[in-house]
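ok so i was messing around last nite and threw this chain in just to see what happens. nothing serious, just curious
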Amino acid sequence: MQAVILAAGIGKRMRPLTRFQPKLLLPIHGEPILKLQLTTLTNYVNHIVLIIGTQGGCWNEISYRRIENLIKEFNKDDTKIEITYNDKNLTTDSSYSFKCALNLLNPDDTLCVDGDVIFKKLLVDKLISNVYHTTLVIRPATSKYEKGGKVIIDERKKIVISVGRHISIKNNRPYIYSGICKIDKENYCRLKKILENKRYYKTNLVVPLRIIAKKYKNIQYIINEDWMNINTLSAYIKAHKRRGF
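result:
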């Protein structure tokens, strides 16, 4: 088992907090988001690849130094955390960030986490122990108009039908994707193959995952609310009111 953290964004919606630092360095209850993520993930995996950006005011020498110092706390004999860069982070999205990590990853079961999501250890316990290999963590949407990556599921078959920011909901009950998933070895190889096509570089990672879900009908889901996306100022404020992360 390995893990990848996709954190190359510039946090436009979080400004002014992210004008000179990326979202993963914002503190929640006194600890940077990245530290909260690493504290949990290192309980389950001994190899983590962190993808960060190179363009934008938040990506600067001070930010890089803080990230490197954080990683030193977790890099031990049995744990390896590596950094790689998305040098096109202003013109690409998380699909390209994942591609940037491929040279450091192995074709193996992979936990994939967005760099702006905080989560509880219990959630990862459930995700890893789930009998199904490729699994998305989702929660019910507050309404069909809620922003974020939407997910449509087949409750009878327990599979994901579709996932994406702009998918058609119609009469289906919408769910919201957390930015946390477990990808099994087989689908990892399929994802790697899809990302050979440059047309996906500017898409969120949910787009190639949707292709896999529709073609192979083998992506499962866990409905769980032990997580928060810190991608707006209001979400950042709410995160400080929640405990347990």
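not much to say yet. Helices lie at 33-41, 61-74, 94-101, 121-129, 185-194, 206-216, 233-239.
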